[in-house]
Amino acid sequence: MYMLDGVEQTSLETIKMINGIDSLMKETKYKLREELLRYIVKIC
């Protein structure tokens, strides 16, 4: 039973970590897109 509790805890922590990585990736994508648009507008 203790083994299953450990597996469950590890799974929950992994899911939180994956969700955090996903959020950071989305945030970075929007920042890069915004910077690219500013750069393109400066050039034109």
Kindly state the percentage of residues in helix: over 70%
Rg over C-alpha atoms, rounded to the nearest angstrom = 19 Å
Taken as a percent bin, the fraction of beta residues is: under 5%
- Indicate how many domains the architecture comprises: 1
User: Secondary-structure element order, as H and E?
Assistant: H
| Sheet/helix structural class | mainly alpha
**Count of DSSP H/I helices:** 1
The total strand number stands at 0
Principal-axis shape: rod-shaped
Average pLDDT, rounded to a whole number, is 95
Low-confidence stretches: none
Q: State the major sheet.
A: none
Distance between the termini: 65 Å
Task: Provide a brief overview of the structure.
The chain is mainly alpha-helical and 44 residues long.
Structure in words:
- Helix content is 95%, strand content 0%.
- The chain has one helix at residues 2-43.
- It starts with a helix and ends with a helix.
